[in-house]
Amino acid sequence: MIQKKLITTIQSYTENPSLGFPVVETHDGKTEYRKNTKFVKGKYYSVFTDIFYIESEQKWYRTTSGKIEKDWETGEWFIKDTKKMINGIVDVDFSGNVITGRFTKNEYNNCPVVWKNSNYTALNPEILKMHFFEDVSANVFYKTGEVGKGDKNQMEKIRPSKSYTNKGYNIEDNAKEFEQKKELYKNYGLKIGDDAKKYAKFLGNTSFGCEFEASVGSMPDYLQNRLGLVICRDGSLEGGPEYVTVPMEGAKGIQNIINTCKELQKRNQIDIRCSYHIHLGNLPKERVYLVALYMLCYQIQDDIFKMFPYYKLDHRGIKRKNYCQKLKKMSIYSLKDQSKEGYDQFVDVVYNRIFEFLSEGHHADQEVNRTQMRHPIREKWQRSCRYYDWNFINMLFSPSGTCESRLHDATLNSQRAVNWLFMNRAVIAFAENNIKKIICGDTISFIDVLNFYKTHYKSSKDAMFLSDYLIAYYTERKNRFAKDIENGDKVSEWCLKDDLTYKFQFDGKALFRD
Hints:
This protein is α+β, with helices and mostly antiparallel strands. Helix content is 33%, strand content 18%.
């Protein structure tokens, strides 16, 4: 209305003093165009700087009147005490002077600050960058100069200052928080890079959720809200955090993995106890798909194990438990009788065999079945069938309908994380598009699976590059670990040590730019 008309009609005198409009001296001795001022009680006030129009009152109010206040989050002015706001730090000028004010809560930006030995909430971390530093383990900002050099050095190191033994073991145990984080992630306006947009189309409608395990670390609440992260408890980590993302899709999901890894690396550390898991969703519901997917994963698992440290294959003497066993063959053989009756019988027999394996020996009945989605063993850590390189339990016993890829070693590296996503997407898509080949016993290698992108999207140069890139990445890892085994190295500690700095290119190009 009046405000918009004034703003769009004329520049300020400071911005352009040569417009030729009549000027006046404002209440504070500055020169301004008359059109940009209001005359109140014998003095001129610059609109949108010194005087504001309050819509609810249909009236102009001076900032010095004591009757209005600014919401520093939105930049709007309101009648004082008519809006719920919090007190906090709203800006820090170039010289380091802290400015306080009031603002509406923003769960994506507000962060805790200690200033002059008192606790505050800051409008956002960006205003603090020049004169404050973050205690990366406590996720609190302190003003530089108010903390001794030795203490500051300690605060900028990742250390075990938080324990997550009070958290639930899985998403179901943190259900309320999970739903809140899903909504927050959905509504967050994430800036998406061109590479994420370019390759997102090859994910199809596959949804995915990631689990990043860390031995030590933390993540600020505002970043958890932006990234859609729920911190869960993992018994194998002895208090370390397991970061579980909300379900993601497409380009936003790819970019979110990249952003998540960037923030995790600042505040977390990994060790040999940790892993990186991916849940893949929007999978076909037909029985034959589960049969084909299981048979494919069984057939290519020897290839896949080669791209990981040897302890993933043989944990003895290194880890107390094998959390990623190879899938069992379970006397599953290829389809011989291709008549309708033979096909139906084959699918029924193999499906029921897989069902019994995933349900810990139960036959499908009124209590235990795919419709009820109730696993006979409630606690997930008690289900022995989940501790394999692929975990299919949720495909039968959860509304999520996901399968979980569990084999990857510890990583907080965005390239490794995204590469593994596209590798697993290739597996589930290959299974969907090659059911007959799989169940009829055709020989299939992991390389064949990674070529899915170039064979399925035949006219796309990006798809060709994606397949070639993933194969080159697979080959590099496989060869490196093979050399370690030749040298008797079952741990391959280099993989942990270079996780922060690792980069991979094929033909001089990376899959995406950080």
